[in-house]
Design a protein that fits this description.
- This is 30S ribosomal protein S6--L-glutamate ligase.
- Its cofactor is Mg(2+); Mn(2+).
- It holds the Pfam family RimK.
- Among the domains are: about 150 residues, Beta Barrel (Cathepsin D, subunit A, domain 1); about 90 residues, Rossmann fold; about 60 residues, Dna Ligase, domain 1.
- The protein has 11 helices and 28 strands.
- Strands 2-3-11-4-10-9-8 form a 7-stranded mixed beta sheet. The chain has a 5-stranded antiparallel beta sheet with strand order 26-25-24-27-28, sandwiched between helices.
- By secondary structure, the protein is α+β, with helices and mostly antiparallel strands.
- Helix 4 runs antiparallel to helix 5.
- Helix 3 links the parallel strand 13 and strand 14.
């Protein structure tokens, strides 16, 4: 490696941390280099802890903040030039100058008042650098403009993320979200939604859990059960208020869970669906059925899940009896046309980030018109048409869902959306298709939480 000559200040880069341009002050009196960081927090397993922190790479520009993460290699007592001692986390990363790169150790400390975002100590300079203390910036200049371009996003390194899975169940889907996330180096924590509580205020909204505020998460993956939809969506809204990226937003989950609301959203976007009708008054039963068509008809509760609360009425008389029974229970329901040509089959399309990443055909158990796998149905991989693919993508987009299971029926006049599921399971579709669906979800999360370029401030004339 060619030996470089440094002045007392130089431009450097820490590419593994996503910091392509920093001004560093050379400090031969310090052994270890220091990076001025803030919001420093530990996460991950205790055997292999990581640290996450934010860096304002440009002095005086607190609107530009880069989130970094790295494994912790040590904790060290550091005494500053004014005699104050502080325990700091130590990380290892690569320092890059003039096309050359070598590993260094860095301590993390919050010194917001310092002009130099970084101090270079003896360990970073040893064997590589000679010092000319009366000069500065003897190596090629870099530019802070990189933080205002798309390059900061495109070239950002993959970093360890802290992710919360909102779930009350220890099932295949929850376990896969943890396993795949941790295999990618992320820290994934399962949070029981009903044990969250919220501090709702304008200045510092927080989500609390087990007696203390939850940490900052890079992303939240909601797996909200139907029975706790209102409270679960309130928790997600709180994360949204804080500014956390939520794979599925509260509004989309709320709308998709209410069958009536969901069909109104689909109708507004002109997305094909079975003819559907709803009425509150028992006097309107005959007219209600007439709006949908002739028997057989489907009668379903507005918040039915996994095929529960869904009844096939094969005759007009049977439909009237089912409707009367539901009304007697003061249950809200809707009536739908039965798509006979679907023959007890539907297609589940798994949509992630606006793309159908997998599709399977589900067939109901013998004698059952419902194709839900939870009710004994079977599944196999299926090739879908471009129209079916477009319909599934449009349906997920109508609810603003980053992850959705869209159920389609194949009818004589094109695909009909039966349901948009904001919390689809992964077991059936991964087993049927052999695809790593959870991995594709993490691809999207990693892309979403990369740093964004910041617009330059306008300067007055």
């Amino acid at each position: 490696m060619e030996k470089l000559t440094f002045g007392w200040e130089e431009w450097v880069a820490l590419p593994d941390l996503g910091l392509p341009a920093l001004k560093a002050k050379v400090d031969t009196g310090a052994r270890t280099s220091a990076l001025h960081a803030h919001d420093i927090e530990i996460f991950g397993p205790s055997a292999k802890p990581k640290v996450r922190f934010n860096v304002h790479p440009i002095a005086g520009r607190e609107d530009i903040s880069i989130t970094c993460s790295a494994p912790i290699i040590d904790r060290r007592e550091v005494t500053s030039s004014n005699g104050e001692s502080e325990t700091r986390f130590v990380i290892a990363t690569n320092l890059e100058v003039a096309g050359q790169s070598w590993p260094i150790e860095i301590t993390l400390t919050n010194r917001a008042g310092m002009n130099s975002r970084m101090l270079l100590g003896r360990q970073a300079l040893h064997g590589h650098i000679s010092i000319t203390a009366t000069e500065k910036r003897l190596q090629p200049d870099l530019s802070y403009d990189v933080y205002h371009t798309a390059a900061v996003r495109r070239e950002a390194p993959k970093r360890a993320l802290r992710i919360a899975v909102l779930s009350r169940e220890d099932n295949y889907s929850t376990r896969r979200l943890v396993e795949v996330g941790e295999a990618r180096g992320h820290s994934v924590e399962v949070i029981d939604t009903t044990r969250c509580y919220m501090a709702i205020n304008a200045l510092a909204p927080e989500v609390h859990y087990d007696g203390k505020p939850l940490p900052r998460y890079d992303a939240v993956i909601p797996r909200i059960g139907a029975s706790i939809t209102p409270y679960g969506c309130a928790v997600i809204r709180q994360f949204e208020t804080i500014g956390t990226y939520c794979v599925n937003g509260s509004a989309g989950i709320t709308a998709s869970r209410d069958k009536l609301h969901a069909h109104q959203v689909l109708a507004a976007k002109r997305i094909g669906m079975p003819a559907t009708a709803f009425a509150a008054s028992p006097k309107d039963t005959s007219n209600l059925m007439a709006l949908v068509g002739t028997a057989p008809l489907i009668v379903k509760l507005l918040e039915s899940t996994q095929g529960k609360g869904v009844v096939l009425a094969e005759t007009k008389k049977a439909a009237e009896s089912v409707i009367d029974a539901f009304r007697g229970l003061k249950a809200n329901f809707l009536v739908q046309d039965f798509v006979k040509e679907a023959a007890g089959e539907d297609i589940r399309c798994l949509v992630v980030a606006g793309k159908v990443v997998a599709a399977m055909k589900r067939t109901g158990a013998e004698g059952d018109f419902r194709s839900n796998l939870h009710r004994g149905g079977s599944a196999k991989v299926v090739r879908i048409t471009k129209t079916e693919r477009d319909t599934a993508v449009r349906a997920a987009r109508a609810f603003g869902l980053g992850k959705a299971g869209v159920d389609l029926l194949r009818s004589s006049d094109g695909p009909k959306v039966l349901e948009v599921n904001s919390s689809p399971g992964f077991e059936g579709i991964e087993n049927a298709t052999g695809k790593d669906i959870v991995g594709k979800l993490y691809d999207e999360i990693e892309a979403k939480v990369k740093p964004q370029p910041v617009r330059k401030r306008r300067t007055g004339s």
